[in-house]
């Protein structure tokens, strides 16, 4: 089912969007998108599951910007599967509209690697979707969570946190 | 990125799966699926966003089983957009595997209509994904949340709760 | 972009639908589908690329009905990638509608394995999409076309042709 | 099922790729893509249906480059549904790889609007997929093929042909 046109629910503590100050100072990585026909559903707005494709692409490009090539990582035997996600749909976005997916790493707890998301209009006056995605690093061969990340990945992730 | 092979994180209060007693007594609607090639990613397991297509189909068929034809509802001017969702990926499911999507309505609070989800192996011995999806009823013409549902829908939803 | 509501073009030799006589005598395998919200686009009809997910599922289940478990085949090192496809969209199908995907193997030429498709209304009075998909068997390790299929697969495919 | 790793079939007249001379002189519009996790399947290569999302985005952006805003067109009551498509998969493209989707309008015949496609490596040394997509202009209200395009669209399409 589509995301709503107007529903503006009161923010909920768990994934309430941060006040938007400045993309640069706050360390958000920005990934622009435009709504194509295949992103929409019968309502004319973006289907709620479509966002996960953008969310993923934004994360992969964010990692690339920090020197982590995700395809390389997989070849090296390390995967970063999603183990948890949580999203709120604040306002629908429709065929032809542009938006910015903003993402940044959040403080990690133990093996959990968290990314915050916030999808906004290009002028930052409206926001559409906010959420959090949690990954873990998995050893592809053993099928187990890696407690120690490959050093290059660890260094890059630490940089993302500052 | 793919869902993990093994990662078994400690359950988290927000969306911890209910103890599975009995599908019938507990009022779960069951929707079976099989993993086809297009559901998978490079890892050989189901891509984490694919689940949202199954989750939606299970909800639409659950509503149909209660006499609510979703396409009819939309024609009548009422939409049920997703305004919030939250999922945990407990165990990966791979190409060719079968699973059961279980869903049931949860108690609603105000205008929020909540569905619980639990995706299990056919023998109910393993579970793959658990989560919650929240919808609201929206008047398609006005683009506003409907505080009073169409009577037929309301009656059907009330039945789902018992 | 969506598939059309009415456009009924004159059939074109390349992929003109076979006259529909009798599903059973003609050896069609039937796979039923229902249009869910995520299958649609802004037009309210099914997005033209969505059909490929149904087409694939119908083919995999057809093979299963003949004793070929596709996931097993892949584990054994044999893949069946699509190398060519061709579809015509005759009539749109909309949110909530049901349809039958009909498929059958067509005579193969050399290494090419062809499947015909025809998507119809449940009462067989209307047809929506017709097409052909060509596969080849590939040795996953060598990355080369297999000129000799695994015997079990060969036997099953030969049966499909009669 | 995935597209193949090597299969290099002899070109087939219907959709044989044009010899690549020069993107600019030959009037190809270029749309770059990168393979993200959700584009792949169990084989590690792009799932054969994924290409249709890129093909569509390339076409919409090509039209935009000529002054046709697709979302505007739809608002004005004109849709451009796909009525036929035909693709050949020459070589697989894998997680993390980049490619260029090239598209250009082909001569139209009657109401049919044809777009040629050719997906290549960034250095134009390899090609992955070639194909043709045929659209018609449909009056959304009447659900009929428009024999006379809106003048602005007609003018833009004529420009695309030269």
Short description, anyone?
The structure is a homotetramer of 162-residue chains. The first copy, chain A, has 162 residues and is an alpha+beta fold.
Give the mean pLDDT of chain A.
Answer: 84
Look at the structure and give the CATH class of chain A: Alpha Beta
Quaternary state reads homotetramer
Strand order, largest beta sheet of chain A: 1-4-5-6-3
* SS strand fraction of chain A: 25-35%
CATH superfamily of chain A: Hotdog Thioesterase
Q: What is the domain tally of chain A?
A: 1
Q: Major sheet of chain A, described briefly?
A: 5 strands, antiparallel
What keywords describe this structure?
homotetramer, three-stranded antiparallel β-sheet, elongated, Thiol Ester Dehydrase, Chain A, 162 residues, alpha+beta, 8 strands
Word description of this protein:
The structure is a homotetramer of 162-residue chains. The longest helix of chain A has 15 residues. In chain A, 19% of the residues lie in helices and 28% in strands. The first copy, chain A, has a 5-stranded antiparallel sheet, covered by helices on one side. A 3-stranded antiparallel sheet of chain A has the order 2-7-8. Chain A is an alpha+beta fold and 162 residues long. The radius of gyration of chain A is 16 Å and the shape is elongated. About 14% of the residues of chain A have low confidence. Chain A has one domain: Hotdog Thioesterase (Thiol Ester Dehydrase, Chain A).
